[in-house]
Each structure stands twice: as structure tokens, then as C-alpha cells.
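Researcher: Next sequence.
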Amino acid sequence: MNRNLWLLTICQGLFLTNNITFIAINGLVGLSLAPLGWMATLPVMAYVVGGALSTGLVAKTQERFGRKISFQLGLLIVLGACLLCAYAAVNKNFWLLCSATLLAGYYNANANLYRFAAAELALPAWREKAVSLVLAGGLIGAVIAPNLAQQTRTIVSTPFAGAYLALCVVALLSMTVLSFIEFAPAPLKKQVSGGRPLAQIMRQPAFIVAAAAGALGYGVMNLLMAATPLAMQKCSLPFSDAALVLQWHVIGMFAPGFFTGHLIKRFGTLPIMSVGLALNALCIAIALSGVELQQFLVALFVLGVGWNFLFTGSTTLSLQTYSAEEKDKAQGALNFTVFATLALSSFSSGVLVTTSGWTWLNYGSLVPVSLIAASLLWLRSQQARAV
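Model: Next structure:
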């Protein structure tokens, strides 16, 4: 880990502080403002829809201006978006809240490239560990975000408006840290051939599985995580319990980052992804066993670890599918699949938990888990056939 990677790890932690706080409060603020109960998670969905819609623009910005300027622009946009969220909460404007979180999605699309930037800042032999360790920076968010939401939700008269204002400070802090990172300069256009067409890159079995497992694994995690604060509220559990559950969930997501890269290096990418898949299935089984605090806590922690193995594995798997001149379009396509799946899961979580309940939400999660299993088995068969 060099100096640039450590600073990028801090930026990842501040990014997750924003994400976790958004997840913890957007559904609850949405529930208090939405015209209909099933619309409660629309502000959560808008955040990831904004990310999906921004992937193409972010890819072009990264290619044209390089990592640093593009990352700083994302932070500037989320700063304005958080101010709009606070204004919408104070003025009880549900649609403005959704629009503000949609705008914040640009930052989401930008900062989701931190993990790829980490691979570029490390020596080739250390790429898996660099990706894993920078993702581990999310532990900063695990510690800060739930406490931030809890401590700032009542500092102004409107619930959670203070949390949105606190996220403005987080954005400013991240801009400061990012200013000290030295990224590789943006390549000159005349030096870049562009590589293969995107369609050719996307037809590779490894790319297909990396995109599918990364997106569906993230989708399952988001489906359950976004619904958890609402489900716990319906079970008459206090917000402090929901904050605790989310905190341990995010610890599960990012603490393994200190060793996931080593595991991938030793056992291979597909075996670690398979373990992540098994942990997702275990999470669903625990969640279906009851609705007490301990079930929510253990299920979401296991879900976090499973997500880490799947997402780190899929990111590592994708690195072998494109060259340096193809990275912007390939990474843009990978992120688009993630955000499109997250948009669907964010909307579904609100609809299912408010209409069908927590139990059916978990049964529904078995569908993407089964699809991930099928994709991993298919890649194994493709690799065996190629030998």
C-alpha cells in the first residue's frame, strides 16, 4: 500500500459514509413524505438510477479529464445534491428529494470507480490486494455513517435534515483528501487506439460472469439492506437498532477487505465468489428464521461478508477482460449493469416490504442468488472446455 492507495482508501470510506447514511435515512424520510407508502424507497432508487444514467457521462469525463478532475466533479455535485435534500426535507417536498438523490447518483457512478483506480495505482502482482484493501476503507463509513445519522437527525427541527447537511461536510473533507492523490495523467487522444469494440469485450464469458455476479450480488445486498430500516420500523424496533444493524452490515461488507485479496490470490477468484454466494443463501435462511434484533443483525452481517467476496471477486475477474485503452468503456459497462440492477432492487425492496412483508422479500432474493450460481457454473464449464 503506497501513499496514494491509503488516501484513496480514506476517500472510499467517506464515499461509503455518504452511501450508508443515504440508505439509512432516505427510505425513512421518503416514508414520511411519500404520497403512498410503497413509494418510500423511491429516493433510494433515484440515487442508483442517477448512477446508472451517469455511467456514460462519467466514462467520457474520466477519459477526457482523467481520474482526479472527474472524481472532484462528482464530489462537487453531491455537495449541491445534499443541500437540496436538506431543503426538500425541511419543505416536505417528496419529488424534490427524489430529484436531489437522482443528481447525487453522478457521485455514486464516479466513486464506484475508486476500486478500479486502486488497481491502476498498484503493481500488477498486487492488483487483487489493492482492490480488496481500498474496498476495506468502507469500514470508515461503517463507523461514521450510522452514528452520523443518529447524532444529526434531530439537530434541526426537521428529522434528518441535519444529516444531509453533515454529508456536505463529508464531501468537502473528501475533496481535500482527494487533492493529495497523484493519479496517472489522462492519456492524449492521439495515443489511444480505443481497443476492441465494447460489444466484443462484453461477449467474453469472464466479462459476462463478472458483470452478472457483481450486479446481482450487489442487487441482493441492496434489496435486503434498503428494506431493513423499514422492516425494523414495522417490527416496532427503534432507529438506534436499525443503525446498529446497518453498522455491523457494513463492517461485514468491508472488514474482509483486509484479507479477501490474499484469499483470491491463494484459492482463485471463482472459489471465493462461490463462498460469497453460499453466505448470501445463509443470510436469507437466517432472515427467514425470525424478526427479532438478533436475526436482523446476524443476517445483515453475513450478507455483508457474502457481498464482499462476490464483489471483490467479480471486480478482480473483470480486470483480465480488457486492456488499458479499453478500461473506460469496459468499466462504464460494468458499472451500468450494477446500477441498473440496484435501481430495480431499490424499488422492489420498498414495494415488497410495504405490501408483501419481510418474509416474501427474502424469498424473492432467492431468484438472483440462483442466477449467480448458474453463471458461476457456466463459467467453470467454459473454462474446462477451453483447457
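Model: The longest helix spans residues 3-33. The chain has one domain: 3-183+195-386.
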